[in-house]
């Protein structure tokens, strides 16, 4: 069965294709105007260009591919790279990110022997930078076993360690999306930010005055916004 994009599912859940794009459900600390919203501009559907997020900016490129062996063993791969400059960055920080997933598809079922894994390596001014970003598909309950493509991970950069978890719930709706509609950033169980991916991506910061944390969340948001997630891919349809 062909995968359906986030936007199509969101509009279906809303019940009318003329309504605005559905919004992700946010924790109370970030909802109802409690957080500062920064649109992520310049990405669109392109594979390279320049982006702008508040006072941060940079260049990016990305790609994806789907390799099928005998139409059964499918390998999904994606790459993303970006260079970012702005507050809290003395020159530039460069990220090189790779995603890989293996799926066995034998109609009418499929299973994933090698779940989606996405990792980034960083450098600063061309030199290795002690930071890491990791995101993986996880299964924590019945919804994940049936359809939900949940992702969890972590970024550690510049003394900040932030946990990342995917969000599948639509604001004002009892339904959940199979694929992520965005991600929440947490420290010690407290929401410190989020990135929404439906429609134009946007970064939400709980405390924009914390420059170090805001920089780390912006870099995490860019890694997520640039990912060609196989849960949403139309390759092979």
List keywords for this structure.
237 residues, mainly beta, 3 helices, 13 strands, 46% strand
Protein described:
This protein has a 12-stranded antiparallel beta barrel. The protein is globular, with a radius of gyration of 17 Å. It has one domain. Residues 1-19 have low confidence and may be disordered. By secondary structure, the chain is mostly beta strands. It contains 3 helices and 13 strands; from the N terminus they run αββββββββαβββββα.
Quick take:
The protein is 13% helix and 46% strand.
Helix/strand layout:
Elements: H1 6-14, E1 36-41, E2 48-53, E3 56-69, E4 73-85, E5 93-106, E6 109-124, E7 127-128, E8 132-137, H2 142-146, E9 151-157, E10 160-167, E11 182-187, E12 190-196, E13 202-205, H3 211-226
Antiparallel strand pairs: 1-2, 1-13, 2-3, 3-4, 4-5, 5-6, 6-7, 6-8, 8-9, 9-10, 10-11, 11-12, 12-13
General shape: globular
The major beta sheet can be summarized as:
12 strands, antiparallel, barrel
Rounded to the nearest angstrom, the distance between the terminal CA atoms is: 8 Å
The sequence of SSEs as H and E is: HEEEEEEEEHEEEEEH
Mean pLDDT: 84
* Helix fraction bin: 10-25%
Q: What is the number of helices? A: 3
The low-pLDDT segments are 1-19
Number of domains: 1
Q: What fraction of residues sit in β-strands?
A: over 45%
Structural class: mainly beta
Enumerate the strands of the largest sheet in spatial order, edge to edge or round the barrel: 1-2-3-4-5-6-8-9-10-11-12-13
Q: In total, how many beta strands?
A: 13
Radius of gyration: 17 Å
């Amino acid at each position: 069965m062909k995968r359906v994009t986030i936007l199509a599912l969101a509009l279906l859940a809303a019940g009318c294709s003329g309504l605005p794009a559905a919004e992700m459900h946010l924790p109370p600390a970030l909802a109802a105007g409690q957080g500062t919203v920064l649109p992520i501009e310049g990405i669109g559907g392109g594979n390279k260009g320049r982006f702008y997020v508040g006072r941060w900016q940079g260049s990016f490129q990305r790609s994806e591919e789907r390799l099928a062996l005998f139409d059964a063993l499918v390998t999904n791969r994606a790459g993303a790279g970006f260079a970012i400059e702005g507050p809290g960055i003395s020159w530039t920080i460069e990220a090189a990110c790779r995603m890989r997933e293996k799926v066995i598809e034998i109609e009418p079922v499929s299973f994933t022997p090698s779940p989606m894994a996405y990792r980034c390596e960083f450098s600063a001014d061309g030199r290795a930078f002690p930071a890491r970003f990791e995101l993986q598909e996880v299964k924590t309950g019945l919804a994940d076993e049936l359809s939900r493509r949940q992702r969890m991970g972590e970024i550690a950069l510049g003394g900040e360690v932030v946990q990342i978890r995917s969000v599948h719930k639509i604001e004002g709706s009892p339904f959940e999306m199979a694929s992520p509609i965005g991600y929440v950033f947490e420290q010690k169980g407290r929401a410190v930010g989020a990135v929404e991916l439906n429609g134009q991506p946007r970064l939400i910061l709980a405390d924009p005055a914390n420059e170090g944390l805001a920089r780390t969340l912006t870099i995490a948001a860019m890694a997520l916004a640039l990912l060609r997630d196989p849960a949403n891919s139309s390759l092979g349809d």
